[in-house]
Amino acid sequence: MSEEKASMALVKRLIRRRIKRHPEHEHQGLNIYPMLDMMTILLVFMVMQFASSTAAAISQSAELTIPYSTSTIDLGEATPIQISRSAISVDGVEVCALRNGLVDPSQKQGGGTGFLITPLKTSMDRVATMRRQIAAANPGRPFVGEVQIIADHRTPFRTLSEVIYTLGQSGFAQLRFVANKTQELGATAR
Question: Quick check: is 9 in a domain?
Fold first, then answer.
Protein backbone atom coordinates (compact mmCIF):
# COMPACT_ATOMS: atom_id res chain seq x y z
CA MET A 1 0.00 0.00 0.00
CA SER A 2 1.31 3.38 -0.87
CA GLU A 3 1.60 6.09 1.58
CA GLU A 4 -0.62 9.02 0.93
CA LYS A 5 -1.88 11.82 3.04
CA ALA A 6 -5.05 11.07 4.83
CA SER A 7 -7.80 13.31 3.73
CA MET A 8 -11.01 13.79 5.64
CA ALA A 9 -12.95 11.83 3.01
CA LEU A 10 -10.50 8.92 3.26
CA VAL A 11 -10.79 8.82 7.04
CA LYS A 12 -14.59 8.82 6.89
CA ARG A 13 -14.57 6.06 4.28
CA LEU A 14 -12.31 3.88 6.45
CA ILE A 15 -14.53 4.44 9.48
CA ARG A 16 -17.65 3.46 7.52
CA ARG A 17 -15.96 0.24 6.30
CA ARG A 18 -15.05 -0.75 9.84
CA ILE A 19 -18.56 -0.04 11.08
CA LYS A 20 -20.07 -2.16 8.29
CA ARG A 21 -17.75 -5.06 9.13
CA HIS A 22 -18.72 -5.04 12.81
CA PRO A 23 -22.44 -4.45 13.28
CA GLU A 24 -23.63 -2.89 16.50
CA HIS A 25 -24.19 -5.36 19.30
CA GLU A 26 -27.78 -6.18 20.00
CA HIS A 27 -28.85 -5.75 23.58
CA GLN A 28 -29.68 -9.12 25.05
CA GLY A 29 -32.05 -9.08 28.02
CA LEU A 30 -34.61 -11.18 29.78
CA ASN A 31 -38.19 -10.51 28.71
CA ILE A 32 -40.22 -11.01 31.89
CA TYR A 33 -43.68 -10.26 30.45
CA PRO A 34 -44.42 -13.85 29.40
CA MET A 35 -43.24 -14.99 32.82
CA LEU A 36 -45.55 -12.49 34.53
CA ASP A 37 -48.48 -13.76 32.44
CA MET A 38 -47.69 -17.31 33.47
CA MET A 39 -47.43 -16.35 37.15
CA THR A 40 -50.75 -14.49 37.00
CA ILE A 41 -52.49 -17.54 35.55
CA LEU A 42 -50.92 -19.77 38.19
CA LEU A 43 -51.97 -17.37 40.94
CA VAL A 44 -55.57 -17.34 39.72
CA PHE A 45 -55.54 -21.14 39.50
CA MET A 46 -54.18 -21.47 43.05
CA VAL A 47 -56.75 -19.03 44.46
CA MET A 48 -59.57 -20.92 42.76
CA GLN A 49 -58.28 -24.26 44.07
CA PHE A 50 -58.01 -22.88 47.60
CA ALA A 51 -61.47 -21.29 47.43
CA SER A 52 -63.12 -24.50 46.23
CA SER A 53 -61.41 -26.64 48.86
CA THR A 54 -62.49 -24.39 51.73
CA ALA A 55 -66.08 -23.92 50.55
CA ALA A 56 -67.24 -27.14 52.22
CA ALA A 57 -66.04 -26.09 55.69
CA ILE A 58 -69.40 -25.37 57.32
CA SER A 59 -69.72 -24.63 61.00
CA GLN A 60 -73.18 -25.22 62.40
CA SER A 61 -74.57 -23.19 65.27
CA ALA A 62 -77.88 -22.21 66.80
CA GLU A 63 -78.27 -19.79 63.88
CA LEU A 64 -77.49 -22.41 61.22
CA THR A 65 -78.61 -26.03 61.43
CA ILE A 66 -78.32 -27.88 58.12
CA PRO A 67 -81.01 -30.45 57.21
CA TYR A 68 -80.20 -34.16 56.67
CA SER A 69 -80.12 -36.04 53.38
CA THR A 70 -79.32 -39.52 52.05
CA SER A 71 -77.77 -38.19 48.82
CA THR A 72 -74.21 -39.25 48.00
CA ILE A 73 -73.28 -36.46 45.54
CA ASP A 74 -70.02 -34.74 46.45
CA LEU A 75 -69.60 -30.97 46.69
CA GLY A 76 -68.04 -29.43 43.59
CA GLU A 77 -66.54 -26.05 42.85
CA ALA A 78 -69.18 -23.44 43.54
CA THR A 79 -69.69 -20.16 45.34
CA PRO A 80 -71.13 -20.84 48.82
CA ILE A 81 -74.25 -18.87 49.83
CA GLN A 82 -75.04 -19.28 53.52
CA ILE A 83 -78.52 -18.45 54.84
CA SER A 84 -78.72 -18.45 58.63
CA ARG A 85 -81.50 -17.11 60.84
CA SER A 86 -79.75 -13.73 61.09
CA ALA A 87 -77.84 -13.16 57.83
CA ILE A 88 -77.08 -14.09 54.22
CA SER A 89 -73.37 -14.56 53.53
CA VAL A 90 -71.54 -14.95 50.22
CA ASP A 91 -68.26 -16.84 50.40
CA GLY A 92 -68.10 -16.25 54.16
CA VAL A 93 -68.80 -12.49 53.99
CA GLU A 94 -72.12 -11.22 55.36
CA VAL A 95 -74.00 -9.24 52.71
CA CYS A 96 -77.52 -8.91 54.13
CA ALA A 97 -78.96 -9.04 57.64
CA LEU A 98 -82.13 -11.07 58.27
CA ARG A 99 -84.76 -10.58 60.92
CA ASN A 100 -85.92 -13.96 62.18
CA GLY A 101 -85.03 -15.51 58.82
CA LEU A 102 -86.77 -12.84 56.71
CA VAL A 103 -85.21 -10.14 54.52
CA ASP A 104 -86.00 -6.58 55.57
CA PRO A 105 -88.23 -4.90 52.92
CA SER A 106 -85.78 -1.98 52.70
CA GLN A 107 -83.14 -4.42 51.41
CA LYS A 108 -85.31 -5.54 48.47
CA GLN A 109 -86.09 -3.91 45.16
CA GLY A 110 -89.82 -3.23 45.21
CA GLY A 111 -90.14 -3.27 49.00
CA GLY A 112 -92.05 -6.00 50.85
CA THR A 113 -93.50 -7.56 47.70
CA GLY A 114 -90.20 -7.57 45.79
CA PHE A 115 -88.05 -10.65 45.25
CA LEU A 116 -84.68 -9.09 44.33
CA ILE A 117 -82.40 -8.71 47.36
CA THR A 118 -80.27 -5.69 46.42
CA PRO A 119 -77.12 -6.32 48.55
CA LEU A 120 -77.04 -9.98 47.49
CA LYS A 121 -77.40 -8.98 43.82
CA THR A 122 -74.52 -6.50 44.11
CA SER A 123 -72.27 -9.08 45.73
CA MET A 124 -73.17 -11.84 43.25
CA ASP A 125 -72.63 -9.50 40.28
CA ARG A 126 -69.11 -8.88 41.62
CA VAL A 127 -68.50 -12.63 41.99
CA ALA A 128 -69.89 -13.31 38.49
CA THR A 129 -67.63 -10.64 36.97
CA MET A 130 -64.58 -12.13 38.67
CA ARG A 131 -65.52 -15.69 37.62
CA ARG A 132 -66.10 -14.59 34.01
CA GLN A 133 -62.68 -12.90 33.92
CA ILE A 134 -61.07 -16.07 35.24
CA ALA A 135 -62.96 -18.12 32.64
CA ALA A 136 -61.81 -15.77 29.87
CA ALA A 137 -58.19 -16.19 30.97
CA ASN A 138 -58.55 -19.96 31.30
CA PRO A 139 -60.68 -21.47 28.48
CA GLY A 140 -60.53 -24.91 30.10
CA ARG A 141 -62.69 -23.72 33.00
CA PRO A 142 -65.76 -21.92 31.64
CA PHE A 143 -68.12 -19.90 33.80
CA VAL A 144 -71.11 -22.11 34.65
CA GLY A 145 -72.85 -20.03 37.32
CA GLU A 146 -72.86 -22.65 40.05
CA VAL A 147 -73.60 -21.95 43.73
CA GLN A 148 -73.97 -24.00 46.90
CA ILE A 149 -76.87 -22.90 49.07
CA ILE A 150 -76.26 -23.67 52.72
CA ALA A 151 -79.52 -22.88 54.48
CA ASP A 152 -80.80 -23.35 58.00
CA HIS A 153 -83.53 -26.00 58.06
CA ARG A 154 -85.92 -23.37 59.52
CA THR A 155 -85.37 -20.88 56.64
CA PRO A 156 -88.74 -19.56 55.41
CA PHE A 157 -89.68 -20.53 51.86
CA ARG A 158 -90.12 -16.84 50.96
CA THR A 159 -86.49 -16.08 51.89
CA LEU A 160 -85.23 -19.09 49.95
CA SER A 161 -87.31 -18.02 46.92
CA GLU A 162 -85.92 -14.48 47.09
CA VAL A 163 -82.33 -15.77 47.29
CA ILE A 164 -82.86 -18.13 44.32
CA TYR A 165 -84.49 -15.36 42.26
CA THR A 166 -81.61 -12.97 43.03
CA LEU A 167 -79.01 -15.61 42.14
CA GLY A 168 -80.75 -16.20 38.82
CA GLN A 169 -80.71 -12.46 38.05
CA SER A 170 -76.93 -12.46 38.58
CA GLY A 171 -76.37 -15.37 36.19
CA PHE A 172 -76.15 -18.21 38.71
CA ALA A 173 -78.57 -20.91 37.56
CA GLN A 174 -76.78 -24.07 38.75
CA LEU A 175 -77.93 -24.53 42.37
CA ARG A 176 -76.81 -27.14 44.87
CA PHE A 177 -78.36 -27.40 48.30
CA VAL A 178 -76.00 -28.54 51.03
CA ALA A 179 -77.27 -31.04 53.58
CA ASN A 180 -75.79 -33.31 56.25
CA LYS A 181 -75.38 -36.96 55.43
CA THR A 182 -77.60 -39.17 57.54
CA GLN A 183 -75.85 -40.16 60.77
CA GLU A 184 -72.67 -38.25 59.85
CA LEU A 185 -71.36 -34.77 60.48
CA GLY A 186 -69.94 -34.19 56.98
CA ALA A 187 -71.81 -32.05 54.46
CA THR A 188 -72.92 -33.20 51.05
CA ALA A 189 -74.79 -31.59 48.17
CA ARG A 190 -78.25 -32.57 47.08
Answer: no
Q: Tens of pLDDT along 51-83?
A: 655 445 566 666 666 666 555 565 567 888 989
Q: Does residue 14 lie in a domain region?
A: no
Predicted structure pTM score: 0.59
The range of the structural domain enclosing residue 51 comes to 34-189
Q: Which amino acid would we find at residue 71?
A: S
Residue 75: the pLDDT is 58
Number of domains in the chain: 1
DSSP summary character for residue 112: G
The closest alpha carbon to 98, from 80, 122, 109, 82, belongs to: 82
In a domain, 10, yes or no: no
H-type alpha helices, the chain = 8-21, 33-54, 118-137, 157-169
Give, as one character, the DSSP assignment of residue 101: T
Q: Is residue 25 part of a domain?
A: no
